[in-house]
Amino acid sequence: MEIETPLTEKKIKKLKAGDRIYLSGYIYTARDQAHQKLFNLLSNNKELPIDLKDAVIYYTGPAPSKPGQVIGACGPTTSYRMDKFTPILLKNGLKGMIGKGPRSKEVKKSIVENKAIYFAATGGAAALLSKTIIDSKIIAYPELKTEAIRLLKVSKFPLVVINDSYGNDLYESGQNKYNELRQSDEL
Question: Which residues are the active-site residues?
Fold first, then answer.
């Protein structure tokens, strides 16, 4: 299934945990330090350097690009490090997040409350993922170097829905299914 940004509620409602999609359009990058800055601005009722409405944030810090490349290797980072910042971003319009690994109970609850979604990108495939990025520019916090906020234009960026807007969690359901199969094999 192909999905284009912006990531509206209508598009999100069609997605279920376990769906594989190709995302095209514009997404932001942000990691720990950038999230802290965004969190501080929102906590102090200040304006953000990016528009969160229906936006997607990719948890990545891309490697420098080589000559002739748009961007260097660009793989997902572990998402739970952003969990303390995520609910306020979702409350302020963020609709999608891309990373790897499970999210906290608080984040999963906030995903449902704000009708958002969490995708996983394949870890260990940073060089391959970077080939789906057709444009990249730093738009905030250049002093953070690889952790600066970038605006990426992606084309058919491969993702899996992990946490959908209905409260489903692919990591939990996958583990449950595995445990059920294992128990049935033991009988």
Answer: 35
